[in-house]
Write a structure and sequence with these properties.
The protein is mostly helical. It is built from 19 helices and five strands. It has helices at about 1-10, 30-40, 45-55, 65-80, 100-120, 135-140, 160-180, 180-185, 190-200, 205-215, 225-235, 255-265, 270-280, 290-300, 305-310, 325-330, 340-345, 345-350, 355-375, and strands at about 15-20, 90-95, 125-130, 315-320, 335.
Length: about 400
Amino acid sequence: MQTLAEQTAKTILGSSLFFSTSKGHDNPSKVLLTIAYQLATKLPSYRTFLCDKLTVDPLLSEKSITKQFSELIFDPFVRRCIYQGPDSLLVLIDGLDECRGEREQLELTGLISYFAAVHPRVPLIWTIATRPEPYIIAFLSRSSILPHYVKEELLLDSTEACQDVEHYLLDELERIKESYLATRFLSNWPTETQILKITAAGSGLFAFAATVIRFVDDILVGNPKAQLDRIIEAIENTVSPTHPLHGGPHPMAHLDALYTYILSQIPKGTLPITRALLRHYLPYGAGPSESFALTCNWLSLTPDVVFGAMHRLHSVFDLPTSPSRVDMMQHRMGFLHQSFCDYLSDPIRSGVYALPRDECVEQDLDCAIRVLNECGPGIYSPILRVRKE
């Protein structure tokens, strides 16, 4: 979807929206306003409409998704017909399954489906990418919806996916090579064999390629060649487990091996704090929408301890990098890929690094009780943590 957005940016792209639970970009109430803002940058007529609409109704963002859809999509494009251009506009929504709440996901899908079915002449093309969650598949399988959309399943190891990953790796490794003195004068880096091994290991999985690039391009290490060598070693040492359902090779085996290698580099003395931070930021923890400062307070950790504990995770976790203390404290940390969350949540995949849900819930409960007790008896009576024997 990112490639499609880039290719159509100067032509038919009207709006592109990328959900990400790990980055806190999952609020369903902001979807339509985001689409509207981007459409306004493309269409002068829609820009005028949106400015007038928000002037009259500045609290539109607080209304329901259905009401926002009616006001921001139906009204301008059906009732007012403000766009009659020669080309339809493309609206991309990527990662629908990472939108907060299954009900909200289905509500948004239903609004778009109904709109497209009832108003086929409106010059908007809706493209939605999502993982095949059962409730989404069930909704899209309804007889009233089936005739109004085209479904395309993208296999991870398809030729197109593998080619896209290979192009991405080549471009990014060339950029890295020119960015470091340690690699700039290496005539044969990366080698063709290394590229082939990484591409084959990734099997068209972009999360794998992106993690490899961030790991290699770690300015705190400053040695891309050594980092790439470590990746190759991890790939060569991977024992591919079988899939628990169909018995074939597990498609995430090399990605899991990469995640395991990254976590294995964390010093044992630091690992408990790292695990506490990762628990906090899993989807069922309290952290995904919190600032860096609030995370420190919630877990009773100082900023230097947090940075020390997450020092080895730059390739999989979004950490503050701003030199401004204010910006750093307001930064919302999070996983860079949902696949890392899935890995940590699945003991079969992550083994000793697994973070079970009950541990995450118990940790947040302990933190909540500690915070309430720290408020003092003037606000709350002391709370005792009662554990089951």
